[in-house]
Amino acid sequence: MAHLMSKILLVEDETKERQFLKKILQRSGYEVAEATDGRHALRIFETFQPEIILTDLIMPELDGLELILKIRAGDPNIPIIAFMTTARKIGLSILKFSEDHGATLALAKPLTEKSLMEALTTLSKSYKVSRPVDRDLESSDILNTR
Fold first, then answer.
1. Helix H or strand E encompassing 7
2. Structural contact between residues 41 and 82, judged by C-beta atoms closer than 8 angstroms
3. Angle at Cα 17 formed by Cα 141 and Cα 57, nearest 5°?
4. Exposure of 30 by Cβ count < 10 A (0-12 exposed, 13-18 middle, 19+ buried)?
5. What residues contact residue 62 under an 8 Å CB cut-off, 6+ apart?
């Protein structure tokens, strides 16, 4: 019996990081559409109709925070995972700010397979997705959940 796959819109301007995350997601059974910045993501969002958005916050053109605000204006319920490098205290503040302005979860880079699967497992428990991730993972890499 075939089951439906969750559709994820992956927004990341760094090619290697995007390819790494896409490989993890596809291996886990997700259908993935890619965007290199927020403007590109908005165009894909309308036609692809993802169930989950995974976005970097620091990107050229339209950044992740602006993307989240625009997505939330039209779809207040879609799960959004925001991520960025947090080498400094300011990075943690930006991640918190992203949650305060619409991100469902905020993760620190570098993302690992474990942290990504934990986040998706957390979302599958709170949101209706076609194919929930069913892995038993710890939540140590997730900064905050709602």
1. strand 7-11
2. no
3. 65
4. buried
5. 37, 38, 39, 41, 42, 70
Does residue 139 fall inside a structural domain? Answer: no
- CATH, residue 44: 3.40.50.2300
Helix-strand-coil split of the chain, %, nearest 5: 40, 20, 40
State the residue range of the domain holding 14.
7-130
- What pLDDT digit, counting tens, does each position of 30-82 carry? 999 999 999 999 999 999 999 999 999 989 889 999 999 999 999 999 999 99
Residue 93 belongs to some domain of the structure: yes
Q: Is residue 140 part of a domain?
A: no
Nearest to 7 by CA among 112, 100, 79: 79
Structural domains of the chain, count? 1
Residue 142 covered by a domain: no
**88-143 pLDDT tens trace:** 556 566 777 777 788 898 888 889 999 999 999 888 877 765 543 443 333 333 33
Predicted TM-score of the model (pTM)? 0.80
10 Å Cβ neighbour count for 1?
2
**pLDDT band, very low/low/confident/very high, at 12 (cuts 50, 70, 90):** very high
